[in-house]
Amino acid sequence: MQKTFDSQPIFIGGDGRSGTTLLSVILDSHPELAVGPELHFNGPENLGEYVEDCLELLIAEDPRVFGKGLKENKHYKLGTQFAKRCHRFGLEFDELRELIINLKNQTNISFAKFEERCVLVNAIGEKIANKRRKKTWGIKIMREIKGLSKYGKIWPNAHFIHIIRDGRDVTASQMKEHETWGYGDVQEAAKSWVSIIEKARKNGRAYNYYEIKYEDIVLRPEDTLKQLMKEMSLPWDDALLKHNEIDHSIYKNPYNHASIDSIVKPINESAVGRHKRDLTIEQIQAFNKIARKMLKELRYEVE
Q1: What is the spatial order of strands in the sheet that 33-38 belongs to?
Q2: In which region does residue 255 sit, left (phi positive, over 0), alpha (psi from -120 to 50) or beta (all else)?
Q3: Number of structural domains the chain divides into
Q4: Domain housing 85
Q5: Transmembrane segments in this chain: where (predicted)?
Q6: Is 137 within a domain?
Q7: Angle of helix 93-107 relative to helix 114-131, nearest 10 degrees?
Q8: Is residue 261 exposed (0-12), middle (13-18) or buried (19+ Cβ within 10 Å)?
Q9: Pair 141, 151: CB distance under 8 Å
Q10: Would you tell me how many other CB atoms lie within 10 Å of the CB of residue 34?
Q11: Which of 35, 105, 140, 271 has the fewest CB atoms in 10 Å of its CB?
Q12: For residue range 59-101, what is the model confidence (pLDDT) as tens digits?
């Protein structure tokens, strides 16, 4: 099964802690865009019966899918996470369950293969856009941006926005605050940071691919976002500069999102250059040694 869609969704990608969530709520502030957080829809064994079972437990407030109960019933973990991420996006548990059932009946597929999952994700995006009376939907795909062509084959008219942040700040954030999923050392971080950028650029050549720097968003927000709107042929709206004044779904249903404390604040530059205080000189030098060429190309200062 290889279905393509004519719609123009927005897929935001980048390394973890690069500002993807900030960019998603900024774009979600636009009157024509409904842009949500990451869905990670490759994780669950399928988005059909398995997620449907998890949703039934969530709707019934079954203790097996909450807190300690979920830790003891790990089988439900990925399906529950997917459902909660959809809830972050603005889709209630019962709405998602109904959507899955109806789509299963219409298509007779299990939503196990990537192409099948995309059918449901497209339906989720369209439903939320219609619900909020927006023209276009979008989600975060994080590091999947390096393999964006598989999304491009399904959504050939999609917009792929790659947000890039100084890799040393990315490393500092992941190593200091996210030990469970972040980088283990600066060498691994430097290699991965460079690889994501190189692969995304290579795969993005055939699609509507844009790069935007986190530092430009927070230091020069209006000029940077106006240029992005121009590239995507979208009208400018001042709401893009006031994301914290808008009632985003993720604010109501954060589910311990790692960036919730920062995205409720106005655009600010407080996190720029954090590696200078959070990494040692030796760690910075080790990162620079591996990523020097890419750092210089992106006009980051190399001490």
Answers
A1: 33-38, 136-142, 10-13, 159-164, 208-213
A2: left
A3: 1
A4: 10-297
A5: none
A6: yes
A7: 130
A8: exposed
A9: yes
A10: 27
A11: 105
A12: 999 999 999 999 999 999 999 999 999 999 999 999 999 999 9
CATH number for the domain harbouring residue 157: 3.40.50.300
**The Cα angle at residue 195 between residues 194 and 197, in degrees rounded to 5:** 70
In a domain, 64, yes or no: yes
Encoding tokens for residue 116? 């099948």
How far is Cα 40 from Cα 127, in angstroms, rounded to an integer? 18
In a domain, 303, yes or no: no
The pTM of the whole model exceeds 0.90: yes
Report whether 140 contacts 21 (CB < 8 A): yes
Taken in order 28, 32, 38, 39, the sign of the CA dihedral is positive
The predicted pLDDT at position 2 comes to 63
pLDDT digits (tens, 9 = 90+) for 96-108: 999 999 999 999 9
Distance CA 292, CA 303 (A): 10
Instruction: Please state, in angstroms and rounded to a whole number, the distance separating the CA atoms of residues 129 and 152.
Output: 20
Location of structure tokens 């980051």: 300
Q: How far is CA 279 from the centre of its chain?
A: 26
Q: Is residue 212 part of a domain?
A: yes
Report the chain's terminal Cα–Cα distance, integer Å: 51
Residue count (the chain): 303
Of residues 76, 131, 87, 139, the one with CA closest to residue 250: 87
